[in-house]
Amino acid sequence: MRQLEKEGVTFTSNNSIVFFENGQAKFDDLFKAVAQAKSSVHMEYFNFRDDSIANALFDLLAKKVSEGVEVRLLYDAFGNASNNKPIKKKKLKEIRRTGIRIYEYSPLKFPWLTRIIPRDHRKIVLIDGKSAYSGGMNVADYYIKGKPEIGGWHDIHYRIEGDAVGEYQKIFLRIWEKVTHEKVSGPQYYPGESLACNALEGLKNDTTTTAGMKTIGIANREPRVSPMVVRKTFVHIINSAKHTIQLINPYFTLNGPVKRALKAAVRRGVRVEIMVSETSDIPITPRIVDYQARQMMKAGAKVYYYTGGFHHSKIMMIDSMYCYAGSANLDSRSLRCDYECNALILDPESTGELLHIFNRDKKTKCVLLTDEYWKKKKKSHKTQAWFYHLLLTPFV
Fold this sequence. Notes:
By secondary structure, the chain is of the alpha/beta class. The protein contains 14 helices and 17 strands. Helix 8 (229-240) runs parallel beside helix 9 (256-267) and helix 10 crosses helix 14.
């Protein structure tokens, strides 16, 4: 992976990782971790939706402030404005009165269109500098309850212990300084690999034989700093595949380099399996996904439509040996514009955990895209797929 190191991916080799495949598991674990914080809690999300799970979290964080814990929160202004229960100014004042330090990245100001890009789409939580959470989930009830219009919401999140946590801390403190102009530093934020006796209690354990020995590379995309690192990592590991590529991605609109890499993999005999959702939280997305899915099917990939709700997961497994997961979608916005953060996990056992999820969902909740299945789609949907792709082409 020397080539990826040159591109800006930072590898450490003493890590553990556990995955959460639904919101209930993620928030149960996260709340237990926050409750045990002794020095600092740092959170960076695209949005905190003003609903029951976020308010329970704010209440717990206020309690931690009263115990002397430093609590710093960041959320994206566009991410906040684009959800249907945003944090409003009155609510923001209430949160700040508890001592929680909370700020929004890049406030929307007139002319607001000039501020849509770039946005902070990362999801990072750090507890005492010892544990890091990241992945695809923001803070909202629908990660647990789903949405009436799309059904259950399925996603992948993870928690890491080891020296990779320090990389997440650097990412957070850099954007914190950018937003607040406050430089936060000191050894207390980088305790390194925690001793077992100091580990947080009651959390989900990494039960693999490689726990504490996993090599994990952090690919952090920042405009003007490391603008191509996430995309180049996608392309590099696709190009390195010898046998299999399996991926799930919700906004499968693809840009040129990734699409060419996937098609080239098929041509050299790699089995490429792609899982996309039949529904989406963004109205036009399913039609754009339809177009790309059809193109990849024609190229020889196996494409599966997930019919059990909305699969918002962003994961890719290569040759059953390593996996790539995080916040980045396979769309132009994630790969060319926004702040994103993914983890490249060089470990067959962790990869196997994600493969289990993929293969289970493929068998129980998916329909294989075939010519016959395509013919059953509404003619209006096919027309929209072509039209929306045409509109999108100049931007990918």
